[in-house]
Amino acid sequence: MVVGNKSRKSQAKKQKINEFVLLVRDGLFYFLVGSYVGHLIEIGLCKLAQIVMRATSVYDIGNCKSIFNNLIEPYTIYGMAGVFLFLFNYYFIDNLWKEKWKKWKLWLKIVVLYLIFALMCAVLEFSVAWFYTATLGSNPYWDYSDMPFNLFGFICLRNTLFFGLASLAFLACIRGVNQLLRDKLKSWMVWLMIGALAGLFAVFYLTST
């Protein structure tokens, strides 16, 4: 009986460790993919601004050139947003709200997620801009001072609304991709893929400093 209890405890402990490792792996996957996908989306928006609007106040020609010149550059702020989306999805949708969430209508889920994601992105963007300003004296990456409905130039309403939509699309796609990798590939293959992305991430930042 004692041996059986020890065995069950050992199995439970092993299961918790495996769940934690899987949680870390998924978090890294969301961060790395978010960093690169976010940059690619920004490139797409920049190109759209060049073609359709002949450059806007945010995505001007000079900024576009720098973006295209560093195509493989990961944007860590988008990776951070990816981690926030992953943790929210894991702790709230898949666990805390799981039973109630199933009963909600699809349109209500979309509206609630959109508002939450837009708010999360605004808080993240504001926090990062504030950190840069506090440590460097200014934010060298973006300034929305000329945009309507901006707050200290750190965030603006237009981008916040867009980031909410982008977050919905990203989470819908990345959840499916992540689940597909879990189902179709062995664990070491997924780790190898994450390692390759992390290596590319490290190489870029080590060579750019």
Q: Name the average pLDDT.
A: 81
Spans of at least 5 consecutive residues whose pLDDT stays below 50 are 55-62
Number of strands: 2
Our count of domains comes out at 1
What structural class do the secondary elements suggest? mainly alpha
Biggest pleated-sheet summary: 2 strands, antiparallel
Instruction: Give the count of helical stretches.
Output: 7
Shape: globular
Q: What strand order characterises the main sheet?
A: 1-2
How far apart the termini lie comes to 60 Å
Helix content: over 70%
Query: What amount of the residues lies in strands?
Result: under 5%
Give Rg in angstroms. Answer: 20 Å
SSE arrangement, N to C: HHHHHEEHH
Describe the structure.
- With 209 residues, this protein is mainly α.
- It has one domain.
- The protein contains seven helices and two strands.
- The protein has helices at 2-51, 61-69, 76-96, 98-103, 106-136, 157-184, 187-208; strands at 150-151, 155-156.
- A hairpin with a 3-residue loop joins strand 1 (150-151) and strand 2.
- The longest helix has 50 residues, at 2-51.
- The protein is globular and about 65 Å long.
- 19% of the residues are buried.
